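Q: Given only this backbone (419 positions), what sequence would you predict?
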């Protein structure tokens, strides 16, 4: 909390207005999608987990579609607001919007307020940040938890605060409880803290090791209902996490890289992609390695690549939603570092980075607007078809009729249940 207060006080009135505007912009972009028809995964989560009694939703894990902690929030939304899309997605929207200012505060801790604002702008306007803030899934929740962990990690660099460390362990457990692949992010943050800590070496490993065990114990307790009802293998050995053969894993690397690039870049113009890539490289090359902790991007990349190599898996690209703010912070840091390095006059440097921000604003919002309009017909047709089919069935079924359908059609099942 002290870091957030300091970050807010550091902003000029103009900067506070800019952060508020960036957040409002993010809300507006997300609201465009909130009334769309439910998609496959969120319909599945609604039907098989969130709409059932809570003890079922938090223990039934035959497929990893169940983002357990978000299932609890979705269940709460359904109980309060019925079966509308807003009830299913409302908490995801809240978490996704909160991630925007938290990205600023983290970017400010990593470098300065200007970098924080640029990073917040990128998170506010990037397509998958928007889409997973408007789907009833756990990605925005996990992202918010990890941003709070990263801010807390800065606070704990030189503090032995038991309450703060316990919160860190709890956040780690909640991130993994939301989606098991949160283990990648938690591990990279633990590695970052091992390097960034100002404690003596013995103290830092005592703290990280001890509270790491607390996190593992807390995660095990949270998963206990799943282990009892669905078995531990449903989490640690389901078809989506089992290792590929070495040959299969190597052959799928190009496809995985291509999918990851498409996920991150989306509809951004190629020129802007190149500029942001150069900025990320600059954030590493120009970093004060002796004076500052590692940039987050370094352990993020190294730990993630090491873990998926050892595990021999290629997770779905959406699993990496949480990396976007950290990549945005790296790009923002690089842009600010390049400006400060080559422009000596502070006023001109500030004007330059403001101009860069405006260009990013126009380009990213334009890309998202194009994506929204180009897919609007498909989204309307998709929803109207499902609603029409559900209405026809409801109008023509007799009292003793029933609909037999399988898990391939959860969207239709959602509209049948809704009506």
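A: Predicted residues:
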């Amino acid at each position: 909390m002290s870091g957030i207060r300091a970050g807010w006080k550091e902003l000029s009135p103009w900067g506070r207005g800019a952060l508020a505007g960036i957040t409002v912009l993010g809300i507006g972009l997300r609201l465009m999608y909130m009334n769309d028809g439910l998609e496959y995964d969120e319909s599945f989560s609604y039907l098989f987990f969130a709409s059932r009694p809570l003890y079922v939703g938090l223990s039934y894990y035959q497929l990893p579609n169940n983002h357990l902690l978000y299932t609890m929030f979705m269940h709460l939304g359904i109980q309060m607001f019925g079966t509308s899309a807003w009830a299913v997605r409302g908490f995801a929207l809240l978490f996704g919007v909160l991630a925007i200012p938290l990205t600023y505060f983290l970017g400010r801790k990593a470098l300065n307020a200007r970098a924080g604002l640029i990073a917040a702008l990128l998170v506010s306007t990037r397509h998958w940040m928007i889409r997973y803030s408007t789907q009833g899934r756990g990605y925005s929740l996990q992202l918010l938890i990890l941003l709070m962990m990263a801010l807390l990690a800065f606070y704990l660099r030189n503090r032995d605060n038991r309450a703060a460390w316990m919160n860190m362990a709890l956040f780690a457990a909640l991130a993994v409880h939301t989606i098991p692949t949160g283990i990648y992010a938690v591990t990279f943050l633990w590695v970052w803290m091992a390097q960034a800590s100002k404690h003596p070496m013995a103290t830092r490993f005592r703290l990280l090791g001890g509270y790491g065990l607390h996190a593992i114990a807390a995660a095990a307790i949270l998963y206990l209902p799943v282990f009892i009802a669905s078995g531990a293998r449903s989490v640690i050995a389901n078809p989506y996490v089992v290792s590929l053969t070495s040959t299969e894993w190597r052959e799928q690397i190009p496809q995985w890289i291509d999918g990851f690039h498409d996920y991150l870049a989306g509809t951004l113009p190629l020129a802007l992609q190149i500029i942001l890539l150069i900025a990320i490289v600059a954030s590493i090359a120009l970093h004060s390695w002796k004076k500052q902790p590692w940039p987050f991007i370094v352990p993020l990349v190294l730990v993630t690549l090491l873990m998926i190599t050892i595990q021999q898996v290629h997770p779905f690209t959406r699993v990496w939603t949480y990396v976007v703010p950290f990549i945005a912070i790296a790009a923002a840091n690089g842009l600010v570092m390049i400006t400060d390095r080559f422009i000596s006059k502070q006023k001109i440097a500030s004007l330059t980075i403001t101009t860069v921000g405006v260009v990013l604003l126009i380009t990213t919002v334009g890309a998202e607007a194009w994506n929204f309009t180009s897919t609007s017909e498909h989204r309307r047709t998709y929803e109207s078809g499902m609603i029409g089919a559900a209405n026809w069935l409801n109008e023509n079924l007799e009292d003793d009729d029933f609909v037999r359908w399988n898990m391939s059609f959860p969207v239709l099942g959602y509209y049948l249940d809704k009506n």
